[in-house]
C-alpha cells in the first residue's frame, strides 16, 4: 500500500493547484449542518480571491497571520490563501483566554489577526478590543498598538462589520487591487522550506513555544498520513478535530487535499452531528481521539445511523483501549483504522500503524516510522542508541522535524541535536520489527482527554495570585478524561484562600481544561535529597486528599 515514492518538492499552493486541475468537480469542502459545499474548482477560486485580498491589505511574505476561530468554512480557505502568498498561518487554540492569547500574539510578533465573535463563554471581540483599544480610534490598516506593537490589522472571519476590523467580504472585494501578475510573481518566489505554519505548544519549562513548520514539513507529513490509510480521490473524511491543531489542519486537511478527496468538516465535535455527517455524505474515514469514539459508540442514537460507508480513519491523542478499537472495527465498519504518534515538532506524525496490522499492534503500539523518517531509542542520559526491547527516549530525524522554535534558539538547540535528531522527551520501546510502543512521556505532562497540558504553564500563572506561596500542578486520575488537573498549594501566612478562589482566578484567563479541578492546600512538598519536588508522590497523595477520586 505504501510504495515509497520520493518526497514531494512543491509548496502547499502548488499542491492545491495540482488537485484542482486533476479533480475540479470533486467535492472539496462540505458542511452538513449548513448545506455548504464547494467543488475543488470553486474552492480554488475562493482561495485565490482571498489570497489576492490579503496581498491588497499589504501582507508580505513571511508575515504572521493568526487565526483564532472554530472550524468555520473560511478557516481552510485561509490556510491555503496564506500559504500561496508566503505568509505564515499562526493557529490559535480556540480555548485560549485573554492572558494566553495576549502572550501568543506578543511572542510571535503577529502582524495580522483573523477572529470570529467568540467561542463558548469567551468573547474574542471583547478581548481584542481590550488588548488593542486603538482599533476603535485609529484608521484601519494604520494600527499602532501599545500592547501589541507588531499588530497591523485585525480582520473578522465572517460577514459582519466591527469597528476597526476588516470584514471578509471587504477583503474578498479588495482582491481586484492585486494584479494577477503580482499574485503569480509572489507565488513564484516562494521556497518549499519557507515557514508556512506556526503552532504554539507548551513546554515543561513554562510558556508555549512557537513551532515553525515549512511547506516541506507539513505537505509531506500530511500526504503520507493519507497514503498510509489508502486515501484516493474517492475518499471522504469526516473531520470533527479542531483545525488549530495539527490533527486537523495537517493530518486532516493536507492528508485529504493531497489525494483529491473530500473534507466533511464539523465546526465542533458533536456525536450526533458526526453520525449524521458520516451517513449523509457516505464518509469513508473518520478522525478522533478515543473519548470521541467512545461518545459515539455509547450514544443512545448510535443504532439509528448507517456507518457502512466507513473504512478507515485515525484514532490518536491518547492510548486506545482494546475494547474500543474492537467496537470501532466491528460496529462502525472501520476495519482499516490506524493509530498515529508524533509531536507538533514533527509536523506531527512520526509513526503510524497500517490497515493490515493486527489488532494487537493497533492497540499496543503506535506503528512504525513513516516513510523517509528515522526513529531510534536512546539512553536518556548518555544518548547511546539502545537495542530492541529496551526502554529509552524516542528520537526522530527526517523531513518532518520542525525548523525550530520562534525566537527561542536555546530551546531549539536543546530539542534538536547536532546530527538532526529531535529528542521528544517521551519514553518508548521498539520491537524487532520496528513497532514503537509509548511507555512514558515528558515527565510532567498531563493528558486530559487528548489535550496536552504542561503543569509549569499553570504554575507560572497561579504564582501571580495573592496569597499563594508555592504551587505544584500534577495529573490526577479521571475515569472520564484519563487525567484531570490537580493543584497542590502552599499558602502564605495569614492567607485564607479556598479552592474555589483558585478556580475563580483562572476563569477567563486560561483555557477551561487547564483550570485545576482538584485543589489541595498543603504545608510542604515531598522533595528529593537534592531538593527537587517529587511530583509522582503528590500524584500518589491525590487519592487520599481528593475523596471523590476512584483508583483506576
Task: Supply database-style keywords.
552 residues; alpha/beta; nine-stranded mixed β-sheet; eight-stranded mixed β-sheet; 28 strands; globular
Question: Summary?
Answer:
The chain has 552 residues and is an alpha/beta fold.
Describe the 3D structure.
With 552 residues, the chain is of the alpha/beta class. A hairpin with a 3-residue loop joins β26 and β27 (482-491). It starts with 11 loop residues before the first helix and ends in a 7-residue tail after the last helix. The chain is globular and about 65 Å long. The strands form six sheets. Strands 2-1-13-12-14-15-16-17-18 form a nine-stranded mixed β-sheet, with helices on both faces. An eight-stranded mixed β-sheet has the order 9-8-5-3-4-10-11-21, sandwiched between helices. Strands 19-20-22-23 form a four-stranded antiparallel β-sheet, with no helix packed on it. The longest helix is centred in the first third of the chain and has 18 residues, at 40-57. The protein contains 17 helices and 28 strands. The model has no long low-confidence stretch (mean pLDDT 93).
